[in-house]
Write a structure and sequence with these properties.
Elements lengths: L3 E2 L15 E2 L2 H13 L5 H10 L8 H65 L8 H15 L14 H19 L6 E3 L12 E5 L5 E9 L3 H9 L1 H4 L3 E11 L5 E9 L8 E12 L5 E7 L15 E3 L1 E2 L2 E7 L5 E10 L10 H4 L2 H23 L11 H20 L6 E3 L10 E5 L22 E12 L3 H10 L7 H8 L20 E9 L5 E9 L14 E8 L10 E8 L12 E12 L9 E2 L1 H5 L14 E15 L4 H26 L16 H18 L12 H9 L4 E6 L8 E4 L1 H7 L3 H4 L4 H4 L2 H17 L1 E4 L2 E4 L5 E4 L1 E8 L5 E9 L2 E2 L1
Parallel strand pairs: 8-10
Antiparallel strand pairs: 1-2, 3-4, 4-5, 5-13, 6-7, 7-8, 8-9, 9-12, 11-13, 12-13, 14-15, 15-16, 16-22, 16-23, 17-18, 18-19, 19-20, 20-21, 21-23, 24-25, 24-30, 26-29, 27-28, 28-31, 29-30
Subcellular location: Nucleus
Protein name: Homeobox domain-containing protein
GO cellular component, one term: nucleus
Amino acid sequence: MMVHTMHRESPDKGLDSGKYVRYTPEQVEALERVYTECPKPSSLRRQQLIRECPILSNIEPKQIKVWFQNRRCREKQRKEAARLQTVNRKLNAMNKLLMEENDRLQKQVSHLVYENGHMKHQLHTASGTTTDNSCESVVVSGQQHQQQNPNHPQHLQRDANNPAGLLSIAEEALAEFLSKATGTAVDWVQMIGMKPGPDSIGIVSISRNCSGIAARACGLVSLEPMKVAEILKDRQSWLRDCRCVDTLSVIPAGNGGTIELIYTQMYAPTILAAARDFWTLRYSTCLEDGSYVVCERSLTSTTGGPNGPPSSSFVRAEMRPSGFLIRPCDGGGSIVHIVDHVDLDAWSVPEVMRPLYESSKILAQKMTVAALRHVRQIAQETSGEVQYGGGRQPAVLRTFSQKLCRGFNDAVNGFVDDGWSPLGSNDGAEDISVMINLSPGKFGGPSHYGSSFLPSFGSGVLCAKASMLLENVPPAVLVRFLREHRSEWADYGVDAYAAASLRASPFAVPCARAGGFPSNQVILPLAQTVEHEEFLEVVRLEGHAYSPEDMGLARDMYLLQLCSGVDENVVGGCAQLVFAPIDESFADDAPLLPSGFRVIPLEHKSTPNGASANRTLDLASALEGSTRQGSEADTNGCNFRSVVTIAFQFTFDNHTRDNVASMARQYVRSIVGSIQRVALAIAPRPGSSISPVSAPTSPEALTLVRWISRSYRVHTGADLFGSDSQTSGDTLLRQLWSHTDAILCCSLKTNASPVFTFANQTGLDMLETTLVALQDIMLDKTLDESGRKALCSEFPKIMQQGYAHLPAGVCASSMGRLVSYEQATVWKVLEDDESNHCLAFMFVNWSFV
């Protein structure tokens, strides 16, 4: 084959490699085959290609290189054009959504202006002597309307034997739902941080001054309307607090729709209140404009209809007209409107817990936004945009997440019909309760646990659980700390006992001991949702045996872990860390026995001077209404509470039940104490009058403080704590511990990444950690790129002169929060024999960004 060129041939060089070359179809086909296998071949590969393909023998290697460059550029342009088309479709749909929202707001403004004018008119024309018969006229006109309309809904017997009566209830629910979804029936206020955009979740709003609590979300998904409806109807697949949904009756409606009578049971989020259930009518139908709508409302004595199933373990809540409206979108996909409006009977729970049942923000995150996120997740998985590791299908990974949440909820609630019963009375001031389940086959339902769940401890399952209140500790920060610093609260022996249920050989019941975590944890990512609000991961606990009796701890263990709600910017979000032991095979049908933590925000309000601002509260005292002394008041007036629910499950045999119960109580009690210490360490401290954590008093700490102070004086010629250089060791330690600047010590090793080894209280506050977890934090992960470059450039000066000053910069805490500082001083810490011990850092005037 000949190559057609657009230039003259040179007698000396043949083809001029700098000119454009026109390739024949056969040559393009050969190059395309290579491009499919390797889009960017090396020089050797291109030369090999010319040798192996005779049709390319008269083309210079440089021209081959240029062809691959142009081919990659065309591929990039094609992908970018497709991406821009997708973004354009999303923006057009979002623009339509915003225009509708703007119309709704204009109608709401007009309605408010009319009401305002009407009220002003009444105030000016009101007269005490005027007889007002308007109420009577309304009653008379209403009676006349009923006489003229014999088919009025109130004339229909609304029971299960009269479909026409149920249809009238359904039509009323549909009209009221549509007025909430697209009209002005509810005064909607957009949630903070929820802004529309091509990649956002959509428009999320909550109710203001409405009966009950309500939330609404509008968004765009790349699925057809009927597929979206199918996903949203399966409430258990996306609503983690849903225990069961039973459809007791299905009645075809005369207009082509469907009426369903549904009984739904919900889990209680904490151990402090009863679970809720709903008895509802669900109506599905198509509208004249092609939209598909599913609305639902409770059947009560007011609305009429058949009575729902009784249940003594649940509190009957009311669902006001709610549902979802799905409209087809031009170019494919759907626009989804979701409305949730409920009354959870907040007065039946303790007063301290009522904000959890009165918050539209929490309802929005747990139900409304969760539904929309789930649909978007399915849409992106269907389109292949989501890639998961480990060779697992997305549906399998979602099943693991659901099993973890469901198992944890079962443990927290302890329903009698699942086989749970209390073991003895509550023990201790922390109100730790213990329940047992002697029906492993019934436990958790057949879809979650098989008959081989308890290979060696076949008698049952024991759960120890507790709740506590925290103040001024963000749930996301606490859960991130518990996830990243397991050694701060966990006991490796207890973990080993929990993992023993997966092995055939028995394992002795351990005694929970403080600081009993002689292992390292390695977090292996498995999957995450599109918006990164939930992580599924495998945690490997590397075991070490330090004595013959600890040989059972020497093997590695594995946990399947689900972490959610770690974004501090989410308003009303619940943070959760749930995990369960697994074996190395990790089969798709692996049995799971989950344990973990759930942290739910209760409120965020300004408190008057003298109000309690304690970071941790005893739950019993809070329920009794007791308060702390005014001396502990928060000077900045900001107070927000969270409730922490802790539940740990263990298998047991008949002869080990009492020992396991004692171990579980002691372990949960130690975890409560650990969380209290962690809360003191990570809660915002500037401006607070809370007494700091006591300084360490070991001989090693006293020696290190003496070396730090002496080295600073030797290198800089100034004293770190003042002019008195003859201060005793205890006084030096107290001065260093309470120093206003963050002082940290970092290891000085040439064969390993430097890690922090010591910090004063301010340094722990800056890094948002504790002394135990401090040793897991590396220096290069704390400093940003400019800080690392500044330290590297000044390092020779530090080693020669003994100290150096670093300019202002930004670093990161262990929780990922950015910290700015005005200056950092670095100096060598010398031992008594003048050998190098470590580097000391002092960050001046730091603050969270």
